[in-house]
Amino acid sequence: MVTSLTSFYFVLIQIPEDKSLPKSMNETNYSQVTEFVLLGLSSSKEVQRFLFMIFSLLYLAILLGNFLIILTVTSEPRLHTPMYFLLANLSFIDICVASFATPKMISDLLVERKTISFEACLAQIFFVHLFTGSEMVILVSMAYDRYVAICKPLHYMTIMSRRVCITLVIISWCVGFIHTTSQLAFTVNLPFCGPNQVDSFFCDLPLVTKLACTDTYVVSLLIVADSGFLSLSSFLLLVVSYTVILITVRNRSSASMAKARSTLTAHITVVTLFFGPCIFIYVWPFSSYSIDKILAVFYTIFTPILNPVIYTLRNKEMKSAMSKLKGRYLKPGQVSGVIRNILFLDQVN
Q: What is the Cα–Cα distance from 183 to 7, expressed in whole angstroms?
């Protein structure tokens, strides 16, 4: 799949031959680099073993937490509302964001030489921008949902119909696809013929372009402009939406304002944790690599695990639905009965 995806882009996007380059370079294949070396988070073996245990547990928690949200929303009829529909889609995207690079990063912590093929590197670039671009639009959609629910409650179900919710999700994936296609177009035909060490735990686009055997100043500006436009425009839309909501709530009763503040606190926390690192890395590209690594860990691991915590622990409806789900599938004595059956089979064998 990765190879066919890469071949598709090589055929689709062809850059004319650069006459300014030496003839010998034009006559050779630009993509002489067949693999990249990922330097990872640390070169210390002790630190790598510690990170292996920590990130393994965190990744398991990401999968369990977000799958639990999806299962709860789909199985509980009371949660078949626009807000929880968008929340379930956010959880699915969080699983994707955490899965495009984290499993390889965890396995690389156990090996000395961390390599990734050229095609797999391009695939990582494709998927990270697809998933993060989609998540930005989903977060904007959730802010719009809260705006309609609080500012126009009488028209909420009419405006946020099932068709509108599905359309918002489709738009989020379309925006992510357009964004990642434009980003990959800047990279797929760059000549990589020498340096191949990426100072990160995955193929981050700004770091990969710096390894090209040509001047990438214009390409870097285009990458920053593309990612910066999507990040800043989404962030500004979120700021405007939440500002209008807070102003509207302030003019209402204190009880409704307290409930809205609780909801908005969760949303704003998630937005800050997700957009902060993205804007810092792509809009301010002059930070040090060590800081970029920490921020990359934040939006690929910590944000996906904090989303289910923030959106569920402060939500009474979600906690009630999870308790009902637990009572349905884990009835008293059911687990102990399964354990007894397993022990009995072991004794028979």
A: 16
Nearest to 265 by CA among 246, 279, 250: 246
pLDDT of 336 over the 60 cut? no
* Statement: residue 345 has pLDDT above 80: no
| Of 327, 307, 328, residue with least CA distance to 69 | 307
Residue type, 177: F
As a whole number of angstroms, the distance between CA 278 and CA 56 comes to 23
Contact present, 79 and 316 (Cβ < 8 Å): no
- Residues 183, 188, 194, 197, Cα dihedral to 10°: 50
- What's phi and psi for 316, nearest 5 deg? -65, -40
Contact of 281 with 287, CB cutoff 8 Å: yes
203 neighbors 36 (Cβ within 8 angstroms): yes
Alpha carbon distance 144, 149 (integer Å)? 9
The pLDDT of residue 56 is above 90: yes
Q: Under a CB-based contact definition with an 8 Å cutoff, are residues 235 and 110 in contact?
A: no
What Cα–Cα distance (Å) separates residue 316 from each residue in 79, 134, 271, 319, 338?
12, 27, 21, 5, 31
**pTM score of the predicted model:** 0.80
For residue 344, what pLDDT is reported? 52
Q: Which residues contact 116 (CB under 8 A, 6 or more apart)?
A: 35, 36, 38, 104, 124, 203
pLDDT at 310 over 90: no
Distance CA 238, CA 236 (A): 5
Cα separation of 19 and 167, whole Å? 46
φ/ψ bin of 38: left (φ > 0), alpha (ψ from -120 to 50), beta (otherwise): beta
Residue type, 218: V
CA distance 98 to 331: 32
Residue 20: pLDDT band (50, 70, 90) is: very low
